[in-house]
Amino acid sequence: MQDIAGHIATTLRRLRQQQGWSLDQAARLTGVSKAMLGQIERSESSPTVSTLWKIASGFRVSLSELLEGADETVGLRQRDGHERVWGEDSAGMQARVLFPFDPQLGFEMFEVELAPGAESASSPHAPGVVEHIVVLEGSLALQVGEQWQHLAVGQGLRFQADQPHLMRNAGEGRLRFHDVIHYRPPVSSSNSAS
Fold this sequence. Notes:
Helices cover about 25% and strands about 30% of the residues. The protein is of the alpha+beta class. The strands form two sheets. A six-stranded antiparallel β-sheet has the order 1-2-3-10-5-8. The protein has a four-stranded antiparallel β-sheet with strand order 4-9-6-7. It holds the Pfam family Cupin_2.
């Protein structure tokens, strides 16, 4: 089984080739520098979750496709505790793919952790993307556009993610939440790249 950094490198290179983009074009469309994209493609750099979001948004693919590929099956899927985890990155964020992007249903699901005091700023996702956040542990301060929301354990929020948003651990312990992301219209999967 390929390691996660190798998978990200291979997937990024494949996506760029499918689009026919140079590193310059990919940098312009993702907001990630040409140098960083080259380092990721050569497995010389471990990108942060925020950087992976920028890449996914620029290529109009799901985040889980970068982490482990699109899920082409519908049916019973069981979490077994061996899901791929990306992080903990320099921002104190860790993301675990619970259910990778499903092209038929148009969603993916993550479990995200933020260390005390950590925050993660996200660039706007593709038009029509909606996120659902449900706090499992800790306290989340979420800024969508200019509006702040504070969520405690058991509380959730749905918002349009095609605008800037920021997630901050507002407590003194770790913050853990589920993040379900719906793509409307569905993002391209590895089988339907243009």
